[in-house]
User: Which sequence fits this backbone?
């Protein structure tokens, strides 16, 4: 199974331009995720500054909410301010990488319909569904609040499970689609 996963991903991620595009996509997703959870902010220009908590190690794994962890440092760089929460950054990077690889697999399946069992030209588009749904892990609550949907109070409890659900869906889609490409 691991060999099929490696082979499928290698075929889908072949080519320098595609790799740069997908790496950029993963980086953009991670940046949007950090912005959505409030760890990254853009505002008025301020001088470069770095502040670290007095004792960061106990804070690092202290949860502030479901899948949202405590900040251990703050980095101010001109217009951007990053609250450094290592676990939040790790979650953002992992989800961004999974989204990028799934998008690469989807692109490969769209461009190579024979990779799909049915062989139709649009069947590979279904491979992108988990990558698209993963966006709700960080942006779903903010979107509901921005739209002022009355069901927000009811749905807000569900969003604590969005990050692990997005992770499971992305890994499942990655394994499924990589195995199909490798076959």
Assistant:
């Amino acid at each position: 199974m691991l060999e099929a996963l490696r082979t499928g991903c290698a075929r889908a991620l072949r080519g320098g331009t595609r790799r740069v595009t997908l790496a950029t996509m993963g980086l953009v997703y991670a940046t949007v995720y950090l912005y959505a959870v409030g760890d990254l902010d853009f505002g008025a220009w301020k001088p470069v500054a770095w502040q670290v908590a007095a004792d960061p190690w106990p804070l690092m794994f202290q949860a502030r909410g479901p899948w949202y962890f405590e900040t251990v440092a703050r980095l101010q760089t001109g217009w951007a301010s990053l609250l450094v929460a290592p676990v939040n950054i790790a979650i953002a990077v992992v989800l961004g990488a999974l989204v990028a690889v799934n998008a690469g697999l989807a692109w490969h399946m769209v461009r190579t319909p024979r990779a799909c069992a049915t062989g139709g030209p649009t069947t590979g588009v279904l491979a992108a569904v988990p990558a698209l749904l993963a966006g709700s892990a960080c942006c779903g609550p903010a979107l509901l609040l921005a739209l002022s949907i009355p069901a927000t109070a009811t749905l807000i409890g569900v969003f604590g499970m969005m990050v692990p659900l997005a992770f499971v869906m992305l890994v499942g889609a990655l394994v499924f689609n990589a195995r199909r490409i490798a076959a």
About this structure: The chain has eight helices and four strands. The two ends are 11 Å apart (CA to CA).
